[in-house]
């Protein structure tokens, strides 16, 4: 999630696009384990597919303004396992999600009680690879109450947990999140602690949790810092995501970071671990991820040759030429 | 009670196919779920088994014998084990109390993910109280999810049997707009109607004005209602450079009672003979386009 950043003149200057990095990562496959596609465009899907993103996880989150009723939660969860999953498949990207009550909205107790009632309806659904993103925002008592309740759900369902660590008072929030997870009887290997930085990573890894890093301009990690993290800590239990959402964020953060790592001398096998394999290993503990699906979602049933135009089947979207002023 | 077919026989048949595809462990899971549901009748038990089926049964394709297929009220073409279990599981809901029965199923629709929606809409021909699902089906046709639309449209006898004309016409139109396999819609010829022919003719004009192709299967629904207004389009098709379009024109004329259309077909007695011998059909046109 984003908040306002200190802008300079350079930040406001128009950016030029240099897709040269795509050559460096040609043929690599990427898995973005945290991205909010509900807030993104089809152009983003297209660009992600072009950059080699084959599968993603969309955690349930706050939509930018608070919800006022349980039905909107229900519809949102439904769209994560329904419409958004289908929209993603149209671009050949396999879409998984985690389902949970986010920390911000956990502060509305009356609503949270109702949301807790409907969660079991969704967490057993196909393609739900964890409970998330849950944890702390302001670190209030109510946030803790519902964080605990959802850890309990995850333990019963045998699902991984995706923890959102707070922006403010991050270090302590991260510690508390881990303490409570252990207290609730979770195996740290089933817990992915997200939005780490240089200050939190060591403890997360030392205690046996997975450490996820969000490459997000201005407010979270930059990818040059990410390169240094991998050089210092290696690749074990480390993963990279974009957390792209309705803020100023980059849905290509994972492939771009992979390209930068290669450029700065990290070997390809290590890059593959932190931008693909580790996230799959962590979330596949849900029993809901099959790599074979990454290919089958790409299959186009058959193309129909008719009147010289090819009609795509299997729901794949035809590709418009974005470079042309002519729209057909 | 509430069923429009012999649900006992169908249930037994589905059970037979399921047991043929399950390992001992999977069969145990099914037996446990059934026992839990029948003993406790707790809705959460019912919903959980419905949702969790793929986790415990997987999604291997199922093979159905010809005799079985013939005795079933719906086609199991393309079914996987989880989907087969789900439709059988729906038969385990007591159907005597209509209101409760409908509530349980509507609730599944409300929180369904993609594959669950496919299973539910595909199960329409098997549900009790068939009159109760008309609005639900019309709602399903508004979906934008390809596989959900296919479950309603393709090889599904429910819509043709129960939808009113306006909803039926929307189904057919949506099938064209979303490039579904129109020839797989059950009851396509039986439910043809002049209003649908008019809408489709307008649509074909729109496509032509935009320089976009018109699917030849469209003329199947215009054929029985060819009139002065549409004959010009049929003639254009008749002289098309594409085989599929020329064949569509011939088949449309064959279905028509409009004299000029009959005369047009008479110019090619060998084509008429092919149609009469069943060598040229809308199926063969569909295959020509799809293969």
From TrEMBL, chain A:
Record keywords: Hydrolase
Region (Disordered): 309-328
Family matches, as Pfam families: TatD_DNase (PF01026)
Biased composition (Polar residues): 318-328
Gene3D superfamilies cross-referenced by the UniProt entry: Metal-dependent hydrolases
GO molecular function, one term: hydrolase activity, acting on ester bonds
PANTHER family: HYDROLASE TATD
The protein's name in its UniProt record: Hydrolase TatD
From TrEMBL, chain B:
Name used for this protein in its record: EboA domain-containing protein
Biological source species: Chitinophaga lutea
């Amino acid at each position: 999630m984003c908040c306002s950043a200190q802008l300079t003149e350079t930040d406001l200057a128009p950016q030029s696009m240099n897709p040269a990095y795509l050559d460096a990562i040609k043929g690599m496959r990427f898995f973005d384990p945290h991205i909010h596609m509900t807030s993104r465009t089809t152009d983003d899907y297209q660009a992600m597919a072009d950059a080699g993103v084959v599968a993603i996880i969309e955690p349930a989150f706050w939509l930018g303004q608070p919800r006022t009723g349980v039905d909107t939660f229900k519809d949102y969860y439904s769209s994560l396992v329904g419409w958004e999953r289908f929209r993603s498949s149209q671009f050949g990207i396999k879409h998984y999600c985690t389902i949970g009550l986010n920390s911000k909205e956990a502060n509305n107790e009356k609503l949270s009680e109702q949301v807790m009632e409907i969660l079991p309806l969704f967490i057993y659904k196909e393609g739900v690879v964890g409970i998330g993103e849950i944890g702390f925002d302001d670190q209030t008592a109510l946030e803790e109450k519902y964080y605990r309740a959802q850890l309990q759900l995850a333990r019963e369902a045998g699902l991984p947990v995706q923890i959102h660590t707070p922006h403010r008072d991050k270090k302590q929030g991260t510690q508390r999140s881990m303490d409570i997870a252990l207290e609730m009887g979770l195996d740290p290997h089933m817990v992915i602690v997200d939005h780490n930085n240089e200050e939190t990573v060591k403890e997360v890894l030392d205690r046996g949790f997975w450490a996820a890093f969000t490459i997000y301009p201005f407010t979270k990690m930059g990818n040059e810092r990410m390169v240094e993290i991998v050089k210092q800590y290696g690749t074990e239990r480390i993963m990279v995501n974009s957390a792209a959402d309705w803020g100023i964020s980059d849905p290509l953060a994972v492939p771009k970071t992979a390209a930068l790592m290669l450029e700065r001398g990290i070997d390809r096998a290590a890059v593959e671990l932190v931008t693909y394999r580790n996230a799959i290993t962590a979330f596949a503990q849900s029993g809901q991820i099959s790599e074979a699906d990454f290919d089958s979602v790409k299959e186009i049933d058959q193309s129909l040759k008719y009147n010289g135009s090819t009609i795509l089947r299997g729901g794949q979207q035809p590709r418009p030429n974005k470079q042309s002023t002519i729209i057909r | 009670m509430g069923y429009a077919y012999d649900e006992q026989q169908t249930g037994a048949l589905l059970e037979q196919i399921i047991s043929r595809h399950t390992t001992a462990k999977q069969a145990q899971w099914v037996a446990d779920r059934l026992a839990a549901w029948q003993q406790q009748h707790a809705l959460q038990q019912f919903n959980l088994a419905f949702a969790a089926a793929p986790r415990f049964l997987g999604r291997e394709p199922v093979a159905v014998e010809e005799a079985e297929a013939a005795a079933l009220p719906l086609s199991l073409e393309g079914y996987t084990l989880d989907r087969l279990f789900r439709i059988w599981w729906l038969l385990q809901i007591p159907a005597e109390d209509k209101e409760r029965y409908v509530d349980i199923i509507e609730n599944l629709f409300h929180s369904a993910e993609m594959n669950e929606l496919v299973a539910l809409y595909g199960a329409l021909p098997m549900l009790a109280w068939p009159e109760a699902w008309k609005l639900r089906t019309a709602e399903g046709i508004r979906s934008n999810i390809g596989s959900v639309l296919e479950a309603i449209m393709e090889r599904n006898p429910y819509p043709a049997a129960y939808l009113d004309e306006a909803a039926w016409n929307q189904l057919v139109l949506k099938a064209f707009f979303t490039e579904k396999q129109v020839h797989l819609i059950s009851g396509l010829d039986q439910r043809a109607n002049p209003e649908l022919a008019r809408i489709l003719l307008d649509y074909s004009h729109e496509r032509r004005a935009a320089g976009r192709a018109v699917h030849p299967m469209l003329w199947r629904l215009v054929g029985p209602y060819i009139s002065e207004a549409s004959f010009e389009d049929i003639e254009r098709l008749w002289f098309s450079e594409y085989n599929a379009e020329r064949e569509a024109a011939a088949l449309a004329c064959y279905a028509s009672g409009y004299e000029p259309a009959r005369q047009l077909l008479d110019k090619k007695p060998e084509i008429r003979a092919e149609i009469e011998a069943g060598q040229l059909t809308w199926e063969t046109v569909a295959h020509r386009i799809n293969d």
